[in-house]
Amino acid sequence: MSIQFNHLKQTLDQQHRQKIFGIPEIIRRTIYLLGLSAIFINPVAASEVQFPKISLTTAESYIAQTTAEDFVQRGVEKLATGDFRGAIDDFNQAIKIDHNSASAYSIRGHTYTLQGEFKKAITDLNRAIEIAPNFDPAYNNRGFARLQMGDLEGAISDFTKAIDINPNLALAYNGRGFAHLQQENIQEAITDFNQALEINPNLVLAYNNRANARLEQGKFKEAIADFNRAIAVNPNYAQGYSNRGFVHLQQNDLQTALADLNQALEINPNYAQAYYHRGLTHVQLSNEEEAIADFQKAADLSRQQGDMTIYQNALDQIQQIQP
């Protein structure tokens, strides 16, 4: 059963605007655990920090000899593997050792944001800023938390403060650009994404977000070029393939869309949005069985991941095919 392409485009546009920054858990964890958290505490990569193996009998002695920053670094290492609980335990220990560790409060607050515990996140980030009023990572992290909460003006204020303190903080430009994009201030958004990429030409998120800004302008060619750049920087960037497939779908280039969405799912077999987009592509190709299978998979995954928007949309699409 086919649907009108204009209606399809409207549905995708609305959904895509809501997902640009990766708010669904599966995307949120992907984009914010790819080495980004380490810069929120200091320039040392978490992978460079070595921790001795300890037994239960030596644990108390080890803790006594370990600095707060050691625990922060180990927490970041756990955070990078998705061990949120273990990371928070280490950040808690860091704060016990040093009640004035702005870095520990900042990264623990960011971890709470990743878990959707925004009240705890804001409390921690406020404390980090109280301790160190010029600590730009804390403003950046609070801006991200406020962005997730829908407080766009608050997010812009925090990202701007982070930039004032550190004009080379590319992630803050990217975050502020996304807030502008959510407000439909497209040119301001593009200006910020451009600045982020001037500072860091390998910032995949900025290419992705600038591409979405181009889509809002109806500039499909430029959007595809940015998704191409994102994929060139990170060939395993599933979101880039999925988003590029979305553009091809909008242009009714269905086989190319299908190829991109297949690639996205090869990289990340648990990518609910890619299954949903591929299901829509199959609808346009009149592949009803394949469409139903993809929508069902999208519904199952999105329900597990807590994304009720994709879940409901997928069920609605199945209902349209099987009334």
UniProtKB/TrEMBL annotation:
Gene Ontology cellular component annotations, sorted alphabetically: cell outer membrane
Keyword Repeat: yes
Record-given protein name: Tetratricopeptide repeat domain protein
PANTHER family: TETRATRICOPEPTIDE REPEAT PROTEIN 6, UDP-N-ACETYLGLUCOSAMINE--PEPTIDE N-ACETYLGLUCOSAMINYLTRANSFERASE SPINDLY-RELATED
InterPro entries, A to Z: TPR-like_helical_dom_sf (IPR011990), TPR_rpt (IPR019734), Ycf3 (IPR050498)
SMART domains given in the database record: TPR (SM00028)
An annotated GO BP: receptor-mediated virion attachment to host cell
Alphabetically ordered keywords of this record: Repeat, TPR repeat
Keyword Repeat (UniProt): yes
